[in-house]
Amino acid sequence: MAVPVADVDMPELELDPVSWEDQRQMLLGLLESGEWIARTPLGYVIAGYDDAAAVLRDGRWHSAIGLIADMQGYDNPEFRQRAGNNILAMEGDEHHRLRRLVGPTFTPKSAERLRPFMAEVINELLDPICERGSAEFVSEVCEPYPIPIICELLGAPRADWQFFSRIATDVFRIFNGNLHRDGPTIVAAQEEMAAYMTAMIAERRSAPRDDLLSDLIAAEEAGDRLSTDELLSLANSLLLAGTDTTRNQLACAVALFAGHPDQFRLLAEDPALAPGAVEEVMRYLGAIRGTARYASEPIVYRDMEFAPGTLIFPSLVAANYDGAKYTGPCRFDITRRSGTPHMTFGSGIHHCLGAFLARAELQEALKAVAKRMGDLQLDGEVEWKPLSNGIWGPTSLPIRFTPGG
């Protein structure tokens, strides 16, 4: 007979450890004690690879992104409507329909055709800093890198890169934890994005091009097509999910390699290691530390009953360090051959739609950095965002290296 989860004796954890290493050690302690669940002030952390995968693949657990406004007591109808229309928050038949329609456009082939452009963008950003041999890598490389690629993907011209960068910065305020202050700015940015994309959609309907937006407009299954509102929502989701994640994950990667020069030399000597390096970086130091779900109905799992509305936090960090899945999980090794995919892209119906694109972006960036900054090292302390941020990474990453690369 299932026991209400609130009545179960289990470890208690704080959600805000001081550093990512403290967080990792806390979760490793949980795994090593054989525990798969722990209580927090807001809900329950789910640890371990198999348990995190199980709940993420169970459609009764719904994405908690749509609850951000509720959790902060922010009652703006326009904000709530836009949040509810986001594919990242959708569930059930509506979500399955959209994924079915757009899935064929987010393929390895669509990412591969952008690789030359990715290499061009990253090298253009590296040129000035390679002349002087130093950089604040976050602001000079990570921040500007993904925007041109998203613009190229959608078919937006270079003249509009700064517009997209500003819109992305304002939309990402959703993760700052202060909607009462930032909500109007977020909604205004979304309205600007909607006006821009509405005009672009109309243009592509009459004159399709070789870009993602044209592919999405043409997407059809059994006569079903995406509406203009759905196309606008997808464009907004792409900007949200495809920009800040890449910025932060690239910064995490460079910070990690600066602390592991032996692994960086391996990559510099053999660029073919880039795909494995990206997977290991995302396992070892993922920019997405965890996710949140809530019970849409009474759910029984492992003899525990979760009441409707119960919040759980599948820990992607714990899953990625599960010793049952990875040999020596605390060892950073870009030649690792575990056979178990990392969990940083998530799992189940909300598995990252742009995973192929993100992998290609990170691979091209790391190949260029390793080739041109072979003796990369830190030039000061790395400053990190709070671990409570939904998308996490360095805020400042000072580096130095021999110039001329």
Care to describe what's here?
The protein has helices spanning 20-32, 49-56, 68-71, 77-84, 92-102, 108-112, 115-132, 137-142, 146-154, 161-171, 179-206, 212-218, 228-258, 261-269, 274-284, 316-320, 355-372; strands spanning 3-4, 37-39, 44-46, 61-63, 134-136, 220-221, 224-225, 293-295, 299-301, 304-306, 311-314, 377-378, 383-384, 394-396, 398-400. The protein has 405 residues and is an alpha+beta fold. The strands form five sheets. Strands 2-3-11-8-4 form a five-stranded mixed sheet. A three-stranded mixed sheet has the order 1-10-9, with no helix packed on it. The longest helix has 31 residues, at 228-258. The protein is globular.
- Report the major sheet: 5 strands, mixed
How many DSSP-defined strands?
Answer: 15
- Overall mean confidence score, pLDDT: 89
Approximate shape: globular
Structural descriptors:
Cytochrome p450; 15 strands; 405 residues; 5-stranded mixed beta sheet
Secondary-structure map:
Layout: E1 3-4, H1 20-32, E2 37-39, E3 44-46, H2 49-56, E4 61-63, H3 68-71, H4 77-84, H5 92-102, H6 108-112, H7 115-132, E5 134-136, H8 137-142, H9 146-154, H10 161-171, H11 179-206, H12 212-218, E6 220-221, E7 224-225, H13 228-258, H14 261-269, H15 274-284, E8 293-295, E9 299-301, E10 304-306, E11 311-314, H16 316-320, H17 355-372, E12 377-378, E13 383-384, E14 394-396, E15 398-400
Parallel strand pairs: 1-10, 3-11
Antiparallel strand pairs: 2-3, 4-8, 5-15, 6-7, 8-11, 9-10, 12-15, 13-14
